[in-house]
What we know:
The chain has 240 residues and is α/β, with parallel strands linked by helices. The chain has a single domain, classed as Spore Coat Polysaccharide Biosynthesis Protein SpsA, Chain A (Alpha-Beta Complex). It has helices at residues 24-41, 60-68, 82-88, 90-104, 126-134, 163-175, 185-196; strands at residues 3-8, 46-51, 72-77, 113-118, 121-123, 138-144, 154-162, 198-200, 207-211, 216-219, 230-234. The strands form two sheets. The chain has an eight-stranded mixed beta sheet, sandwiched between helices. Strands 5-9-10 form a three-stranded antiparallel beta sheet. Strand 1, helix 1 (24-41) and strand 2 (46-51) form a beta-alpha-beta unit. It is globular and about 45 Å long.
Amino acid sequence: MASILVTSAIAPPQGVPALRLQDAHLRLIATRSALYRWADSRQVGKMVICDGSGVQPLTPAECELFAHAGVEVEQLCFAQDQAVLRARGKGFGEGLLIDHALRHSAILGRDAGFYKVTAKMYCHNFAEICALVDENPVAALFWRFNTMALPQCIDMRFYYCGIDWFNQVGRQAYQAVDESAGRIIESTMLPLLERECRMVHVPAPRLSGRVGGSDRYFDDLAAPDLGLPAFCALLPGSPE
């Protein structure tokens, strides 16, 4: 089973575009809440938490507690350039978090891919999606938002990505983000996926948790499944 990569910013700078939840204490509560749900699910063996605001969400004692539940935890934290975040937005900052994790994580250095999940979010059908990826030659798997209100946007809160595929394709979308100019990661990723992926019908992630942009609690379990197809890239050499 691949690792989950949790992208976190417990104490973001003031003035980041489209970010209503900025209180560090409330962000820490929401993040820890989601992390404990992952550990309690008994479906995750490896967890990499990368925070760009210089804060480790879990204490050493909590990491030991997670280990008792069978979860190996690696925490990486650094201080992102606040001026860049204010200018380019949280989506651009998330790309920097993933890049930092791929460069410095011992866990990810042992894996071919990762499940990226935004801090504060939990995926209820994670085991079902893991089985799908494990049984098929998947290099990347992304979904649209499960709502017709965002028809041209990719749901970037949760996805699966091979490390090679991210380096060759996925990071291009993050580098193109500039939220002050209206270029958000949810839309810059779409044309890349349309060019590089095939459309497949697979179960969509059922997410719940606190949304930093709106500061509202979100629960996918209450929403109808619209059956939107996913974007899937296959490993090189796989039969079409």
